[in-house]
């Protein structure tokens, strides 16, 4: 009897367990929106996450609706189910939602999982549109957000000053003087050197040298700007205003106890550094006068200038621990800034101007400041966003800030010496609309993978294009792949081409009107030609495989490209193949037949160890106003032994390829290691004279004869240390 009872009990338990498991497996599907705020910009896209893999066919215009609560009208949205079927992306209507309106997103319970299980009940989510992102209202709210980020900030990012659609110059190409090689016509970029056709302005480590360059007979150093505790990095020049971007060191007071502690002084230096923007009136270049000073807490990211309106971006890392430490030391927890148009004192960014970027989990402040460089009295427009920026693209109408993210816990990173093969990578791109110096957040988009640099982004007509690499370069389990995505200007995805060059990664990208050119590399250099005439359906038209790779692509007319990179060879070592870089490689690509691109000519400079700044800094490429004379600084080595450093000047035409015109060097003896001060970093031309610039001197060469005509020694730099 006891045995029979035990058997019956056992059977009952098994049946009960089966019923429970079956019930769980077939329990109604749940849905949620993982968002911090229900007050959103008008171009907000929504992602709904489901508890089970969904049947894509069950999502229709009837089961998914967005209703304007005031009018009761249905909004014409579009949607897309993610690859794994567990999330649904609902895109804002073209032109966006109406501002300051309440909306209800509804997903009916008629939608089903792949196992035909229905949504447990109708899912509804309400939201309100706003012209700007909601502000962080108080210190308590800021702390609460940072505490939440403490274990979620899983990114390993590197803030870089980005490097760039069809190349342009920073002034009209009809000018007789060369200008900075920039990304977008009409959107100037800061550089080490600027000129006004007569005068040369050059930023060195500790000062700015101003020299007269034309006419050559009167060429000489006029003066230098040398401010204590200020390190200039880059320059803009607009009419008679010289804008200098750099870093300002500020001493901090210490009490006697702190001064007595040598260990503490090493851990906590008694100074802080912040980025600074200084504006000088150079209507008289011999006597520049500082007329404005703007200081931002954080590290310089990048800057742009449009018709005298400057835009400056900075990043500052923060954390809940950082905020608490500041509070204990009676320091302001918000980022601070100083604008001489308002006050000579630092002041905190108002909480009303600190916003959280949607979807960002970064404990960083991204600050964007803009002002008219010709107006010394109107306050700068300064906004701060809780988030971060890595790579920036700017058109005349929109600013795009890309931020890399990886779902990889920080503690796991410190517990291993390498990245996992299945590391999930993505990039979020934020769009800000630009109008008369004001920037308004407009929307965002997510793309798989990471961007190589600013050239990976481009705006053309009514579309935005971006190229990315996913996976692990050289990895076996999750090999790298390369992709191109297109969006409309409300950041709604419209097209893509994916899965190019498995096992390789992007080395350079160039967007030219209705085409994109992409260079990937592992052992050979494929050049892909991609048609973007129809943004909704990008298409690979042709491909070329050659040795070496190009880090930078520059257009030469409509049907040719100049590639700047490295020559390579594959060598065998210990039974394995590896790629070794050799000399600097210049390639001329003919893309007139898009289905059959050709490498029309090649120039190799130097051997192993040779390199050029132009491969990673497009602004170091000199371009003569007539468009056929190019120069680049190159360090020449053989078997990693340095031989020389100088400027190489080429005439480049589709008909004759690369024709070396001159090499210019400051080295007196190629076998002697020269000081870095002699290194040529830039070239410019005024009328018929080419100038090379190093920290030591300005050398002039007659472009008609290619002979040196004058050398001007720069004054010795003072130390700011």
UniProtKB/TrEMBL annotation:
Chain segments carrying region Disordered: 157-182
Residue intervals of the SbsA Ig-like domain: 35-129
Entry-linked InterPro entries: Beta_propeller_containing (IPR019198), Cu-Rt/internalin_Ig-like (IPR014755), SbsA_Ig (IPR032812)
Comp. bias regions, Low complexity: 165-178
Keyword annotations from UniProtKB, A to Z: Signal
Signal peptide coordinates: none
Source taxon at top rank: Bacteria
Name the UniProt record assigns to this protein: SbsA Ig-like domain-containing protein
């Amino acid at each position: 009897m006891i045995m029979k009872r035990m058997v019956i009990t056992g059977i009952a338990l098994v049946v009960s367990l089966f019923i429970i498991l079956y019930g769980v497996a077939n329990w109604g599907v749940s849905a949620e929106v993982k968002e911090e705020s229900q007050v959103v910009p008008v171009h907000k896209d929504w992602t709904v996450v489901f508890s089970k893999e969904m049947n894509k066919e069950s999502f229709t215009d009837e089961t998914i609706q967005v209703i304007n609560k005031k009018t009761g009208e249905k909004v014409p949205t579009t949607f897309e189910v993610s690859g794994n079927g567990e999330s649904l992306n609902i895109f804002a209507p073209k032109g966006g939602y109406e501002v300051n309106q309440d909306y209800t997103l509804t997903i009916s319970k008629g939608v089903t999982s792949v196992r035909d299980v229905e949504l447990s009940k109708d899912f509804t989510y309400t939201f309100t549109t706003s012209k700007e992102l909601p502000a962080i209202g108080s210190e308590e709210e800021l702390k609460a957000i940072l505490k939440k980020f403490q274990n979620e900030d899983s990114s390993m990012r590197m803030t870089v000053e980005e490097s760039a659609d069809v190349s342009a110059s920073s002034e009209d190409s009809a000018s007789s003087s060369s200008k900075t090689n920039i990304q977008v016509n009409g959107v100037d970029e800061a550089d080490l050197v600027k000129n006004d056709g007569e005068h040369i302005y050059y930023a060195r480590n500790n000062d700015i040298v101003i020299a007269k360059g034309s006419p050559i007979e009167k060429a000489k150093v006029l003066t230098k700007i040398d401010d204590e505790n200020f390190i200039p990095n880059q320059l803009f020049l607009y009419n008679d205003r010289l804008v200098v971007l750099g870093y300002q060191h500020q001493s901090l007071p210490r009490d006697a106890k702190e001064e007595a502690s040598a260990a503490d002084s090493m851990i906590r230096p008694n100074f802080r550094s912040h980025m600074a923007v200084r504006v000088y009136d150079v209507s008289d270049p011999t006597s520049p006068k500082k007329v404005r000073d703007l200081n931002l807490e954080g590290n310089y990211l990048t800057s742009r200038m449009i018709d005298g309106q400057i835009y400056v971006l900075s990043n500052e890392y923060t954390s809940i621990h950082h905020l608490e430490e500041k509070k204990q030391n009676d320091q302001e927890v918000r980022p601070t800034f100083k604008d001489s148009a308002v006050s000579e004192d630092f002041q905190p960014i108002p909480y009303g101007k600190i916003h959280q970027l949607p979807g960002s989990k970064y404990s960083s402040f991204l600050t964007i400041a803009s002002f008219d460089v010709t107006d010394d009295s109107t306050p700068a427009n300064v906004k701060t966003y809780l988030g971060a920026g890595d790579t920036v693209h700017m058109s005349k109408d929109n600013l795009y800030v890309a931020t890399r993210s990886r779902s990889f816990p920080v503690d796991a990173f410190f517990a291993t010496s390498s990245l996992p093969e299945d590391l999930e990578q993505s990039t979020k791109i934020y769009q800000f609309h630009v109008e008369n110096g004001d920037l308004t957040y407009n929307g965002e988009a997510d793309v798989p993978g990471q961007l190589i640099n600013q050239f990976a982004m481009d705006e053309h007509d009514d579309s935005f294009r971006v190229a990315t690499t996913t996976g692990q370069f050289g990895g076996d389990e999750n090999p790298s792949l390369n992709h191109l995505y297109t969006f409309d200007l409300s950041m709604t995805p419209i097209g893509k081409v994916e899965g190019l060059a498995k096992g390789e990664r992007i080395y350079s990208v160039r967007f030219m009107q209705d085409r994109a050119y992409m260079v990937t590399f592992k052992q050979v250099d494929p050049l892909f030609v991609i048609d973007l005439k129809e943004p909704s359906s990008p298409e690979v038209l042709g491909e070329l495989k050659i040795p070496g790779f190009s880090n930078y692509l520059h257009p030469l007319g409509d049907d040719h490209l100049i590639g700047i990179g490295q020559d390579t060879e594959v060598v065998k070592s210990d039974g394995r193949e590896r790629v070794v870089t050799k000399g600097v490689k210049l390639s001329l690509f003919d893309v007139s037949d898009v289905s059959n691109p050709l490498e029309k000519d090649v120039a190799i400079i130097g051997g192993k160890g040779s390199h050029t700044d132009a491969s990673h800094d497009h602004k170091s490429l000199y371009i003569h106003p007539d468009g056929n004379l190019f120069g680049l600084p190159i360090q020449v080595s053989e078997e990693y032994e340095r031989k020389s450093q100088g400027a190489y000047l080429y005439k480049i035409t589709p008909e004759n390829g690369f024709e070396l015109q001159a090499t210019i060097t400051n080295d007196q003896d190629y076998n002697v290691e020269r000081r870095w001060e002699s290194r040529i970093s830039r070239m410019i031309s005024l009328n018929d004279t080419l100038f090379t610039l190093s920290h030591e001197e300005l050398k002039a060469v007659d472009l008609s004869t290619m002979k040196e005509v004058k050398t001007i020694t720069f004054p010795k730099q003072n130390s700011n240390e």
